[in-house]
Amino acid sequence: MRKRVIFVCLPALFLIGCSQAKDNRREASAAAADMSQHQPMPVHPSSGDADTDFLQAMIPHHQGAIDMARDEIAKGSDPKVLALAQKVIQDQQAEITQMEKWLADRRSQRQETK
Fold first, then answer.
1. CB neighbour class for 68 (10 Å; exposed up to 12, middle 13-18, buried from 19)
2. Is residue 69 packed enough to be buried (19+ CB in 10 Å), middle (13-18) or exposed (0-12)?
3. Going by C-beta distance under 8 Å and a sequence separation of 6 or more, which residues neighbour residue 63?
4. What is the Cα–Cα distance from 23 to 82, expressed in whole angstroms?
5. Does residue 82 contact residue 72 with C-beta atoms inside 8 Å?
6. Whole-number pLDDT of residue 29
7. Would you state the pLDDT for residue 32?
8. Which of 1, 28, 37, 86 has the maximal Cβ count within 10 Å?
């Protein structure tokens, strides 16, 4: 009797496991598609100036945070998280503007010293 129960139950468990695996793959695929807009940050070749390299790396990093915050505003529902997303956009955009100005100033200074 016990062998018969195992024989009947084992295929059923196998099918349940396969079904759950498909669901997990579907969820992972959906998550990957949703995150596909978040591409790796470009790597800038070293300029030989640590300050310039830092600023050039931080700008796309901040832009990625802005993109994620915009996505949250478009799809999110929690007022606290939406408020945070709005603050991220404002703060990160201000910092991008500042860093771009500093980079422009650094380029001007290099031109003047040549």
1. middle
2. buried
3. 92, 96
4. 29
5. yes
6. 45
7. 47
8. 86
Phi, psi of 33 (to 5 degrees): -65, -40
Q: What is the pLDDT of residues 1-37, one digit of tens each?
A: 555 555 555 555 555 555 555 555 555 544 544 554 5
- In whole angstroms, what is the distance from residue 58 CA to residue 60 CA? 6
What is the per-residue pLDDT across 42-99, written as a single tens digit (0 to 9) for each?
566 788 899 999 999 999 999 999 999 999 999 999 999 999 999 999 999 999 999 9
3-state secondary structure 76-102: CCCHHHHHHHHHHHHHHHHHHHHHHHH
Asked if 94 contacts 74 with a C-beta cutoff of 8 angstroms, the reply is: no
Q: What are phi and psi of 102, to 5 degrees?
A: -60, -40
Query: Among candidates 31, 97, 18, which has minimal Cα distance to 63?
Result: 97
Tokens 């016990």 correspond to what residue? 2
